[in-house]
Design goal:
Layout lengths: L3 E5 L12 E2 L1 H6 L10 H13 L6 E5 L8 H16 L3 E5 L10 E4 L2 E4 L8 H4 L1 H5 L4 E3 L4 E7 L2 E6 L13 H16 L3 E6 L21 H9 L5 E4 L6 E6 L5 E6 L9 E8 L2 E8 L11 H19 L6 H12 L2 H8 L12 H14 L9 H12 L1 H11 L8 H6 L13 E4 L4 E2 L1
Parallel strand pairs: 1-3, 2-5, 3-4, 9-10, 10-11, 11-13
Antiparallel strand pairs: 1-14, 5-6, 7-8, 8-9, 12-13, 14-15, 15-16, 16-17
Helix pairs in contact: 2-3, 8-11
Length: 441
């Protein structure tokens, strides 16, 4: 592949703040939201300013969920930010996704949740005509997928799998056929191709293979289609997670999935990616600081909000006036790791015994999304998790056959343990990978 460098920014979830994002209704909504909503405009501006200042790279790729929830005013404002970035000399290629159209557009004013004007899917091509479609060699009108030559002999295949013209989160047979035609045309023209798609191609962590919306449906089929037709890597988002994963098809062809976090909420990263020959360099960058009235860093605020949302989602399982739910909420709010260990007759390291279980859950959750998960064998947390699964092995053995589908057996214990630890041999955040079967750490 010819040399190329670009910035990758995803899940900007841009919200036009003048619509309304303050008050009791907003505070209630934010109890379960991972990312910042009111500050999204300032975060996008700061990031785009930082990218604009780098004169060594002129390409920017954005794989979907551009707006908060399809508000038409958010799209209009976001496009103004894209226009400024383009005026700095950058070429920008974007696709849209499920948060960019539909009828769930909301704003928050005082105690009220207000419906605001949303964006029809049919309008998105015109809105983003300067950011992919006007430069396209081919467009699939049904899904708004497209192909563009972004550098000499290098084509971007932008697959929109979250549209009205295709089952959500899936590459169906019709779209497969269109993709195969584009890859054949690229090969005939002597061009290399890489892919941008909103949904992860490969489950970002093993347990996500059990979560329907966490990756492309029939992902092995799509991964094999791409890998066996010469695609070496794909750029994805959607899950707000930092991950790099590889898949090798039955024919022995490898594809690398680089999934990048939400820009406006923890882990709050974007990436700079460079390809030179057979080498793929991935560098993660923090969302830059912007003016905000607090002594805490932006990353600390992002992390605090994410953990807060994880804990509120757990506590939400016990909402209600029934006595058992109230008791469950009280227990889950206060029980420590040590107390749970004693209840289950499981040994826990003294360094974690006084930690509340809810706090540990928040820390583990955020570590999974940050990538390079630290809770492997030999750590107090990792060993405790392994012992819990060993204790409940008799139940797990009954569950696993029900989770196993399409001839693929599920080992739930290994799946969980490999989700909380990184055993891949390279970082999810910063890595140099070879586009064949070698990996440099």
């Amino acid at each position: 592949m010819n040399s190329v460098s670009f910035y990758l920014v995803t899940d900007t979830h841009y919200f036009e703040p003048s619509l309304g994002c303050e008050g009791a209704a907003y505070d209630e909504y934010m109890k379960r939201e991972q990312y910042f909503m009111a500050e999204s405009r300032d975060i996008v501006r700061a990031t785009f300013d930082e990218i604009a200042a780098d004169n060594s790279v002129d390409l920017v790729l954005i794989p979907g969920d551009l707006s908060k929830n399809g508000e038409i005013e958010s799209h209009k404002s976001f496009i103004k930010e894209l226009d400024k970035l383009k005026d700095s000399g950058k070429k920008i290629f974007a696709i849209t996704a499920g948060h960019d159209y539909g009828e769930t557009s909301r704003a928050y004013v005082g105690d009220n949740v207000l419906d605001v004007e949303g964006t029809p899917f049919a309008s998105l091509r015109e809105f983003y005509k300067d950011y992919g479609y006007s430069q396209a060699i081919a467009v699939d009108d049904s899904t708004l997928s497209y192909v563009a030559e972004i550098a000499p002999k290098i084509r971007l295949l932008a697959i929109n799998c979250d549209s009205e013209g295709n089952p959500k989160g899936e590459v169906d047979e019709r779209l497969e056929g269109w993709i195969k035609i584009q890859l054949d045309e690229a090969k005939k023209d002597g061009c290399s191709v890489f892919v941008m798609c909103h949904y992860p191609l490969i489950p970002s962590v093993p347990v996500f293979d059990l979560v329907g919306d966490a990756k492309l449906k029939n992902w092995r089929r799509t991964a094999s289609l791409l890998a066996d037709n010469g695609v070496k890597f794909i750029l994805t988002g959607h899950m707000h997670i930092q991950s790099i994963n590889e898949y090798v098809s039955e024919k022995g062809n490898k594809i690398i999935d680089i999934c990048t976090s939400c820009l406006v909420g923890s882990p709050a990263k974007y990436r700079k990616i460079s390809v030179e020959g057979n080498s793929l360099k991935v560098e993660s960058k923090d969302t830059p600081e912007f003016r905000i009235n607090t002594s805490e860093s932006l990353q600390e605020l992002f992390d605090k909000q994410f953990i807060y949302s994880i804990q509120n989602r757990i506590l939400g399982l016990f909402n209600g006036d029934k006595m058992l739910k109230k008791l469950g909420r009280k227990i889950i709010s206060n029980i420590t790791v040590g107390a749970l260990g004693r209840l289950l007759w499981i040994k826990t390291d003294k360094s974690i015994r006084k930690i509340k279980l809810l706090d540990l859950a928040g820390n583990i959750g955020i570590s999974i999304f940050k990538g390079d998960m630290p809770y492997g064998a030999g750590t107090p947390e990792g060993d405790a998790i392994a012992r819990v699964f060993k204790r409940f092995r008799f139940i797990i053995r009954k569950i696993e056959p029900k989770l196993s589908k399409n001839g693929i057996k599920v080992n739930l214990t290994d799946m969980i343990l490999n989700t909380v630890s990184n055993n891949k041999g390279y970082s999810d955040n910063n890595a140099v990978l070879m586009l064949d079967n070698e990996v440099e750490k």
